[in-house]
Amino acid sequence: MKIIGILLVPLTSMVVLWGVITAVTATESLELREYKTLWTNLRHPAYKLINEIQRERLVSAKHLRHMAAQPAVETQRSRTDAAEITFRRLSDNSKDRSEEIRTQVNAVYTQLNRLDVIRGEIDTSLSDRLHAVESYDAIVDTLFGLHRRVALIDDIPIYEQSRVVIDMSYAKELLTREQAIALGPTTAAERRTFTQIVGNRRFLVDQALGELDPPLRDPQVTLITSATYQRMRMMEDQIISGRSPNDWLSVTEELAESFQDVQMRASANLNARADPVADEVLNRAHLLAGTALVLVIVSIVFSLRMGNRLSRELGALRLAALEVAQERLPHVVGKLRGGERVELPEVSVASSTVEIDDVGQAFSTVQQTAVEAAIGQARLNDGVGHVFRNLARRSQTLLHRQRIQLEDMQHRATDPDALEDLFKLDHLTTRMRRHAEGLIILSGATPGRGWSRPVPLLDVARGAAAEVEDYPRVTVEPMSGQRLAGPVVGDVIHLVAELIENATVYSPAHTQVIVRGEEAARGFVFEVEDRGLGMSAEVLADLNERLASPPEFDLADSDRLGLFVVSRLAARHDIRVTLRGSPYGGTTAIVLIPAEHVADPDPEPHVKEPARPMRVVRSE
């Protein structure tokens, strides 16, 4: 009873799976056979109705140009009505196969109900030529929507070819639209519409030909490469330029009939392909069902003998592995990061199966190796942090002494060229100081630079721009007078300077980097915008994720030290940094400083009015 209880669920699942495979495969065969029924009741009568509507549209266009008498129009309308009646009668047999098909067929009915209105507008001259053609176009578009809906089939090759054949049929529809518009001299609006239709048809034909398989493509290629088709393309160019070719109607009539014959043969070819595929699917269903049944029987016999023992041993191994992965290793790694010592017991699983026992021993080895690697990594990170911190502190001491000497030399310098060189050295020292602070940040410590009083945010932006090598390219736009709290001034200057430097490095040397600032509802926003080549959406998403959740510093990823420093500084003060594309093609960095770090502007001092008016004296 225990064996049966253990094996009941998987064996039942296998039986159900066997039934599902059989039912699904057989259903697929029936759906393929239904494809032929839908062709007979929906697609074929729809093609005939489209053909008659195309002819009625043409004769109506002739009538509006006084090229066709009313009896000819009435004759064609009668043929269209007959095709409509046939379509409605046959579509009633298959429109309820699915909700999607029923919705599309009802949409076709709605458009067909407008035929009397369209005809009345033409007869009473209330509709111009272009409006009449477009009214018929709307009816045909819904019929082609029905074609695309009905052409869905589980066999991918047939579906792909059917979709392309429908596109080619629609190209023929576009040709008949051109034919109706350009029967004679055209207006500017008609030529614009004609030009759009020509472009769409040519694109559709070029795209579809490459996707057809040879039996369906060869007749299409023969038609497209014919002299008549090339002549028609030349006539299209003439009509677009404002001329009216004399034999436009005859050439397009011949091509429209040829297109119709080729598309109908292609559609019939695809319809014939569905039956052999359905038979093959049904045979495959029988084979799969028989094979699955044999496998079910074999599985039952084998499972009764081996299932009980293996399930117990594997269950014990699973529990041990889950304990290691979900509890023991995370607990050990947490202790190691806190500097504590750990001892690991081995993973033991009582098993009479050699393979399961080996897996248990392997888990013990993996556990020990992971802990040793975590210990080594923790020691390495701590050592690297100490190295970074010591190097940075020494560099800061030397740079501080260097700045004092440079300031003294600047005060004593009298030569303008020498003074300019001293200023360049002072700027270089400022940049070196920022890089030293970057090492301190990488080590996990806090740089010592800070201010005791709030600093205007405009001065913060200018200070950040001054720490960049290519500072002449940086434009700091005027901004409101809000001030930044002194304890965070140094870190914000460092953060914005890293973003500005990145913008100058990854943008052409002749372009500007713009720094803007404005008050926001939740604080103050800096924008650093470059006009470089920009980044892809995937790269932007990756960088924004790193900025939002600073990762552990990776020594191998030294190319992104600036990004790591920015993320560390932003996380320290709850600052949000976001990268996005710029309208100029480059990248914009947005820095949102929380409101708790931003103070109101200094109150403007009251200026006392002068006792007497001042007079400006201009010299000659």
Automatic annotation (TrEMBL):
Superkingdom in the source lineage: Bacteria
Molecular function in Gene Ontology: protein histidine kinase activity
Residue ranges constituting the Histidine kinase domain according to the UniProt record: 492-597
EC number: 2.7.13.3
GO cellular component: plasma membrane
GO biological process per UniProt: phosphorelay signal transduction system
Gene3D superfamilies in the record: Histidine kinase-like ATPase, C-terminal domain
KW Metal-binding (keyword) present: no
Pfam families listed in its UniProt record: HATPase_c, NIT
InterPro entries found in the cross-reference section: HATPase_C_sf (IPR036890), HATPase_dom (IPR003594), His_kinase_dom (IPR005467), Nitrate/nitrite_sensing (IPR013587), TCS_sensor_his_kinase (IPR050428)
Claim: Methyltransferase is one of the keywords in the record: no
Gene source species: Nonomuraea mesophila
Keywords linked to the UniProt accession: Kinase, Membrane, Phosphoprotein, Transferase, Transmembrane, Transmembrane helix
Root EC class: transferase
Catalyses which reaction(s): ATP + protein L-histidine = ADP + protein N-phospho-L-histidine
Name recorded for this polypeptide: histidine kinase
Region of interest: Disordered: 600-620
Alphabetized PANTHER family for the sequence: SENSOR HISTIDINE KINASE TRCS, SENSOR HISTIDINE KINASE YKOH
Transmembrane segments: none
